[in-house]
Amino acid sequence: MKNELDNKLMLDAYEKIHTHGEARQGRHYLEGIEAYTDHDGYTVFLEGHGVKLTLQFHNSYHLDYDNERQYDQFIRALKNISKGYETPGLERG
Known about the structure:
Blueprint: H1 7-20, E1 22-24, E2 27-30, E3 33-37, E4 44-48, E5 51-55, E6 61-64, H2 68-84
Antiparallel strand pairs: 1-2, 2-3, 3-4, 4-5, 5-6
Helix pairs in contact: 1-2
């Protein structure tokens, strides 16, 4: 199950979840996706729909999921978040 991910999409979704999501104990939640970082902020974690994505410092990543349906739901959720929320400082005019 090898997938090529768009790192820009992943980081954009993370920022929007962090900005617009509900904060609970150092993690943020938005539309079924949980987003958080490690203690130094260099590793980003996105989890939801049975998928765990670990995005590391040099844009390498690791995906953990059981089936393609989970992966498809996860990517669709990230795309919806990326398109559906404003980027801080870049509000539409």
